[in-house]
Amino acid sequence: MADFIHLHNHSDFSLQDGAQSVEMLCNRCDDLEMDSIALTEHGNLFSMIPFYKEARKRGLKPILGCEMYISVGDHTEKKQITTSTGKKWGYNHLVLLVQNEVGYKNLMKLVSIGYLEGFYYRPRVDKDLLRKYNEGLICTSGCLAGEINQYAARDDYESAKKAALEFAEIFPGRFYLEVQNHQIAEEYASHSILQRLSEDLNIPLVATNDCHYALKEHWEAHDVLFCLGTDKNRT
């Protein structure tokens, strides 16, 4: 039995981004002898029922979750801010994992609010909503598009610390700093800051990868899919 499981995964229900089916994801778990797996689609729970059924059929523990879009301001404000580098910035990523039935209901509530009230390019919620509906949810800091990880990649320790303390307050005892390795320079740059935050603030680290396909040879198919979704050409 594997002593590691993946907690940050996307299937083809992460539309125009995930390049693996729920069945392919569960097949890979069988191959690697993993007993549990999380599925964290981008801003939706579309795959939740087929994922749960497929995982249970195979004897896997399904961990329900979502990679949420967290607005930089009020979730109902349809605006972006411009950073010092000229980048338009309207939301950050954050992963939520269901801990119990209360968390399941709160996650459904948050995702629904994102679509019904906070949709602006993406279905967004804000930190006030997280404060209201955090019970029963485990939170991880997400990928390089997460608020803390972006600050860490820019070597901005104080801003990363402020954000980490805020999320640790919203999710007491249920917040983790994600460390990922996709051989990206910005990720390498963020690791020392994330480790320092963990030591200084007593926030545990969790190792994840931002998995969008099941096998490494599927990278090209994912690249084509991603280009279709972002209206870009392959180089």
3D structure, described in words:
The protein is α/β, with parallel strands linked by helices and 235 residues long. It has a single domain (22-229), classed as Metal-dependent hydrolases (TIM Barrel), CATH 3.20.20.140. It contains 8 helices and 10 strands. It has helices spanning 22-31, 48-57, 101-116, 127-132, 147-153, 157-170, 185-201, 219-230, and strands at 36-42, 61-71, 81-82, 88-89, 91-98, 119-120, 122-125, 137-140, 175-179, 205-207. The strands form 2 sheets. Strands 1, 2, 5, 6, 7, 8, 9 and 10 form an 8-stranded mixed beta sheet that branches. It has a two-stranded antiparallel ribbon with strand order 3-4. A hairpin with a 5-residue loop joins strand 3 and strand 4. The longest helix is centred in the C-terminal third of the chain and has 17 residues, at 185-201. The radius of gyration is 17 Å and the shape is globular. The model has no long low-confidence stretch (mean pLDDT 92).
Number of helices: 8
* Residue fraction in strands: 15-25%
Total number of beta strands:
10
User: What is the CATH architecture term?
Assistant: Alpha-Beta Barrel
Number of discrete domains:
1
Low-confidence stretches: none
CATH H-tier superfamily: Metal-dependent hydrolases
- The chain-level mean pLDDT equals 92
The biggest beta sheet is recorded as: 8 strands, mixed
Q: Determine the fraction of residues in helical runs and give it as a percent range.
A: 25-40%
The termini sit apart by: 40 Å
Could you give a short description of this structure?
One of its GO terms (biological process) is DNA replication. With 235 residues, this protein is an alpha/beta fold.
